[in-house]
Amino acid sequence: MQYYSVYEPEDEATDLAVRADRLAFVKEGFAWAALIFGAFWLLYHRMWIELILYIAVFGGLEWLLATNKQAQSLTSLAMLGLTVLFALEANDLRGAALKRRGYRLVGVAIGPDRGSAELSFFRSWLPKQKRSEETDRAQHQPPVSETPRPLLRNQGDEVIGLFPNT
Predict the structure, then answer these.
(1) CB under 8 Å to 83, separation ≥6 — which residues?
(2) 96: which of 26, 106, 116, 148 is 20 to 30 A away, CA to CA?
(3) Are the C-beta atoms of residues 44 and 62 closer than 8 Å to each other?
(4) What is the secondary structure of 69-137 as a DSSP string?
(5) pLDDT at 51 over 60
(6) pTM for this one?
(7) 113 in the Ramachandran plot: left (φ > 0), alpha (ψ -120 to 50) or beta?
(8) What mean pLDDT is predicted for residues 6-16?
């Protein structure tokens, strides 16, 4: 089973289809693409602050360990360890970046693959959104004014207009 955190932008669109398209599904757990591609994974997800920190940490480590002849053998081991640590935390960093951009966590999707997880999420999410749309519509409609019941003959006042009822 795969678990996904689902994020929605704070500035909700009024159209339900647009809102569904703007949802971000972030896989929980290890990010294989982040392990293999690192900086390119950060570029793809537009995580600019994390990219700058990634380059600074790896560049600084390379510069620091490359100056010492005895530490050169540790450089590759330290780089591998940092890369694995980054891959373990990459999806959590992506969730934090989405929150920083104004997204909020709206739910969790679970399924054997991403498609099944999205399908199960939308099956539970869409009915709630339709109900909230109906209640929003009902709240924004002007209240129905009560019209007076029509009076039957010989009911009501004794005067009709300017003439007495005689």
Answers:
(1) 35, 38
(2) 116
(3) no
(4) TTTHHHHHHHHHHHHHHHHHHHHHHHHHHHHHTTEEEEEEEEESSHHHHHHHHHHHHHHHHHHHHHHHH
(5) yes
(6) 0.71
(7) beta
(8) 84
